[in-house]
Structure formats: C-alpha cells, structure tokens
Design goal:
The protein is an alpha+beta fold. Helix content is 27%, strand content 30%. The chain has a single domain, classed as Alpha-Beta Complex (Nucleoside Triphosphate Pyrophosphohydrolase). The strands form three sheets. Strands 1, 2, 5, 6, 7, 8 and 9 form a seven-stranded mixed β-sheet that branches. Strands 3-4 form a two-stranded antiparallel sheet. The N and C termini lie far apart (42 Å).
Length: 175
C-alpha cells in the first residue's frame, strides 16, 4: 500500500494602506532546485509557502521547515509568534485516502509582507503576487493550463483548486 501523501502550507495575508486585506501568493518558478529539473506549471500561483511532509514530521514541524526554506528565518520567527498567540488559523484540512493537505493562515504586518515582495526573482524563485478578495473569483483552475508551458500571461492567476479554496478561506476566516 502506498503511504498517504501529506503536505502543508500557509497563506499569509496583509493589510494594505486602506486597511483592506491582501493575500500574498508565491509564483512558481521555471526551475525546481530540489529536483534539479524544470518546474511543472511555471508561473502558476500557490499559497505563500507549501511543501510535503518529510519522514517523521508532523504538520506543524513541516510547516515551520517549509517557511524557513521558502521565506527565511525572519518570517519563520514571526509566524511562530503568531502561532504562540493562537492567531495561526487552520484554513483547510483536505483529506482523501491517498493524500492530506492542511493549509494555515495568518495576517502579518505591512512591513513584513512588503519586505517579502522585495525578494529578488531567480530561476528557482518566481516571486510573489498580491491579490485582493475580489480577485479570488478570477483564479483559473490549472487543468486549463499546460503543465510544461505554464502560465505565460502575468495577469492570469492559476492555482490548484485546494489552494484557491485556502485563499478564499483566508479572506473569510481572517477578516
């Protein structure tokens, strides 16, 4: 029997100058440095950080590892503080016999999310995209996008359905 594939993610939200919530999405790069191969669906959007559990990890351990790997130690310490205060919310817990995905959400200060946007793009990091609540309805399901070509139009927001749901739930549960 194949073991259940487990993954975890976090959707970070921030408040803009007007006090409105925005979601910080990570844009998938062209190159997967872990696999040393081209990335599938380059240009698609994902929750702020996401990845699979490694052997022996629980969801929280994996979440903190993924945040450190993808967003850095500074963001990790901020999310740990948010978690300690009880403000890290479970957005979705999607479970089927073959997989389980848990995505958490939190609101970070404006200076935190704006500093994330300044991170330099490279072959293995596609940058971030900021969206507002009304942009969720514009998100395209990846089944309509070629896996190898990916998203070629910067105005297109394409996501896996469970991640789109996590973004929608972040706006609902964290507002």
């Amino acid at each position: 029997m194949t073991p259940k594939k487990k993954s975890v993610g976090i959707q970070l939200l921030g408040k803009n100058k007007d006090g409105g919530l925005v979601a910080i999405l990570q844009v998938r790069a062209k190159w997967d440095s872990e696999k040393n191969a081209p990335e599938s669906w380059p240009g698609m959007c994902q929750v702020t950080a996401h990845g699979g559990l490694e052997e022996g990890e629980d969801f929280m351990q994996a979440l903190f590892r993924e945040i450190k790997e993808e967003l850095g130690s500074e963001i990790l310490s901020i999310v740990k503080k948010i978690s300690e205060t009880g403000n890290l919310k479970e957005l979705i817990n999607y479970e089927k016999p073959e997989k389980q995905v848990i995505t958490y959400g939190a609101i970070v200060e404006e200076n935190v999310w704006k500093s994330m946007l300044n991170r330099e793009k490279k072959a293995s990091f596609g940058g971030f995209k900021v969206i507002r609540p009304n942009d969720v309805k514009k998100i395209v399901d990846l089944k309509h996008i070629d896996r190898n070509t990916g998203v070629t139009d910067d105005s297109t927001i394409a996501m896996f359905p469970d991640e789109k749901e996590a973004v929608k739930m972040a706006f609902e549960k964290l507002s």
